[in-house]
Amino acid sequence: MEEVNELVKKLACREAHKLTITESIENIHHHIPFFKIEGEQVLVGGFKHHDNASRMIFWAKYLQTHILPFMPKNGALNGYYNIELHDSYSHIPRIVDAREKNYTGPIDEYKNCLVWSRHKHDNDVVLLPDLYHIINYNNRLENNPDHYVWEQKNDKIGFWGTTTGHMDPCRNNRIQTCLWFDTQDPSHKLSDCYITNIAQMTYADIIERVPTFQRIKKNPVILPFQYNYKFLLDIPGNTCSWDRVPHIMHSRSLLLKMPCEDMCFYYPLLKDGETHVEVDKDSVFKKREYYLQNPREAKHITQKANAFSENVFKGDVARSYIRTLFEEVAYLKGK
User: Fold this and answer.
1) Together in a domain, 149 and 264
2) Residue 19 contacts residue 114 (beta carbons within 8 Å)
3) Do 156 and 120 fall into the same domain?
4) Does residue 155 share a domain with residue 69?
5) Which residues does 85 contact at the CB level (< 8 Å), separation at least 6?
């Protein structure tokens, strides 16, 4: 555990070197929410009409309760900070459009901005732990143990999720990937990949654009049901799967991770073939077959994933990361 804590602190220190405190309100981006630190107090602004406005209130209280009382008392952290309240900025239409046109202007606005997750190539954006991690996943990991051993689970690939991601159903990764599985495996002998909740669009909008959507729409299923599958799939939505990845790694199922352009702070600690298995449409069924034929390897990976979960997916680890980040920012400012 001590080694993991040191690795987490190193990641936090690396992010701290990207963060510069803005001393004047005129020099921050006013279309991105912001907050001001004054001693142990946090003032907030630019968020009231944001659809995730409640996150700013939570963040300010969290800083005042769990972070700032433990910081140096020399005012080194005083100043203004931008923070993106969306899951990530990556799925915001103007950012998607700019990236597709190879135009960096809107993306550059997020340099020196605190975010819960970021695009893996936007190295000047400052990563915080995601909100689910900060609140210890509402204790759902420890309250939902996996009671199935590998041999008891069925051989299928499973996914049940919400339509988060691109707001155009024809370009929504989760909708299109579930439809791909349905086309490749129409009898569902190898996989069960379904959309169980609709967000950021309506059912009518989806049906109008994607008439075959009804084939992959199912009612939600509880975690114990999902744990009956040997292989659980991660398909990115708005950003990284904040609680899906931890839930799967906490279980005895094998995490099959589809390509993801975004990252959470702990992603550099993940290792393909050790904590999870990276797949795409060309390899997903082949890797399923490989691990069915090599169950010892599959179980070894799930055990490594369980150990990772026990050491990293905890609220106090997120708190340690945030404290280290701000401690390092204060130290760098005082140098």
Assistant:
1) yes
2) yes
3) no
4) no
5) 33, 47, 50, 52, 53, 55, 56
In a 3-state reduction of DSSP, which class is residue 262? strand
User: Cα–Cα distances in Å, from 39 out to 19, 53, 74?
Assistant: 18, 23, 8
* Cα distance between residue 302 and residue 310, in whole Å: 12
Same domain, 186 and 287: yes
Distance CA 22, CA 26 (A): 9
- DSSP letter assigned to residue 130: P
pLDDT at 335 over 80: no
State yes or no: pLDDT of 1 exceeds 60: no
- Whether the per-residue pLDDT at 71 is higher than 60: the answer is yes
Q: What is the CATH number of the domain that holds 242?
A: 3.40.50.2000
CA 45 to centroid of chain Cα atoms: 25
pTM of the model: 0.94
The tally of domains found in the chain comes to 2
The string over 214-245, giving b where at least 16 C-beta atoms fall within 10 Å of a residue's C-beta and e elsewhere, is eebbeeeeebeebbbbbbbbbbbbbbbbbbbb
Given this model, what pLDDT does residue 238 score? 80
Rounded to an integer, the average pLDDT of 38-59 is 95
Task: Based on the fold, state whether residues 131 and 143 are members of the same structural domain.
Answer: no
Same-domain status, 201 and 245: yes
Which one, of 212, 211, 206, lies nearest residue 186 by Cα?
212
Measured CA to CA in angstroms, residue 6 lies from 2, 16, 49, 126, 284 at distances of: 6, 15, 39, 19, 34
Distance CA 279, CA 157 (A): 12
Is residue 169 within 8 A of residue 252, CB to CB? The reply is no
| Residue 54, Ramachandran bin (φ over 0: left; ψ between -120 and 50: alpha; else beta) | alpha
Specify the 3-state DSSP secondary structure of 179.
helix
Full domain range(s) for residue 79: 2-135+315-334
Examine the domain organization and report whether 144 and 48 are in the same domain: no
Q: Give the closest residue to 84 by CA, choosing from 119, 56, 123.
A: 56
Mean pLDDT value across residues 103-123: 94
